[in-house]
Each structure stands twice: as structure tokens, then as C-alpha cells.
Design goal:
CATH architecture: 2-Layer Sandwich
Number of domains: 1
Pfam families: YbjQ_1
CATH class: Alpha Beta
Family: Belongs to the UPF0145 family.
Radius of gyration: 20 Å
Strand order of the largest sheet: 1-3-2
Number of helices: 3
Distance between the termini: 72 Å
Helix content: 40-55%
Length: 149
């Protein structure tokens, strides 16, 4: 009986810690997104800016590797049995993409706009027999333009 209580306590502690860490990361993302609203990142290849006004152009990138906790893996495994939307991986993908974009914007420095933004994702740490996703990498890249006023 003691073993079961210890197991359930550790299970609840792990679930609580994972939920707390994810919420804290989302709060951090929202705060940093608000701080970088003045730097647009668009997927257009050009921003219709006259070439003589562009002072500099350079490639910027940002990447993030985010792992999913065991509870979400269990939930995703159950969802695979019954089918449907896997919400536990949606938040993983969302956090990785947004974090990569924020890191790309941080690399842009004093740029006016980032054009031709692309986001690539890859599952890393895939176990060959179980085919579970343990980590996800998102990489965002684009061209940062600094424009004369």
C-alpha cells in the first residue's frame, strides 16, 4: 500500500511540475512577444522597400528544442489508440515554433523588418521501435533588413 501511495504522489508531483513549467514558459513567450511587436516577421519574399533605402540585409535564425513530458506521451499514446486531435503535442509544437521565432528576432538586433521567414521542424530522439516523439526542434530563419528612415 505504501508503494502505491509513493507512486501516486510522485505521479502527481511530476504532473504538477510539468504543468507549472509549461505555463511558466508560455508566460515568458507572451511577454517577449509583446516586447518584440515592433519588429515584424513576414513570409513575403520582399517588403516593397526601395533598394536604395535598405542599409543592410543579413540572415537571422533561431532554433529551439522542446521535449514533452511522460504524461503527455501517455496521453498521446492513448489518443493514437482512439484517434483524433493530439492536444498534448499541439502545445509542444506551438511552444517550439514561437520560441524559435523569438530567438530569431533577438538575433535581428536593430533590424526594421524580417522578410522571407520560414520555419522548419524536426522530431529528434525518435525511438526506432516505439516511434514516440521525445523532442521537437523548430528552426526559424529569414532575412533581416535595416532600412534608412
Amino acid at each position: 500500500m505504501i508503494d502505491l501511495i509513493v507512486f501516486l504522489t510522485l505521479l502527481a508531483l511530476g504532473y504538477g511540475a510539468g504543468t507549472w513549467a509549461e505555463k511558466r514558459h508560455y508566460r515568458s513567450i507572451v511577454a517577449r512577444e509583446q516586447a518584440t511587436l515592433n519588429l515584424p516577421a513576414v513570409t513575403m519574399k520582399s517588403a516593397h522597400i526601395a533598394e536604395n533605402k535598405i542599409r543592410s540585409a543579413r540572415m537571422v535564425r533561431g532554433s529551439a528544442v522542446i521535449s514533452v513530458d511522460y504524461f503527455k506521451r501517455i496521453l498521446a499514446g492513448l489518443r493514437n489508440i482512439f484517434g483524433g486531435k493530439v492536444k498534448s503535442y499541439e502545445s509542444l509544437m506551438d511552444r517550439a515554433r514561437r520560441e524559435a521565432l523569438l530567438r530569431m528576432k533577438a538575433m535581428a538586433g536593430d533590424a526594421t523588418i524580417i522578410v522571407n521567414v520560414r520555419i522548419e521542424t524536426a522530431a529528434i530522439g525518435k525511438q526506432s521501435k516505439r516511434k514516440n516523439i521525445s523532442c521537437l526542434e523548430a528552426m526559424a530563419y529569414g532575412t533581416a533588413l535595416t532600412v534608412e528612415e
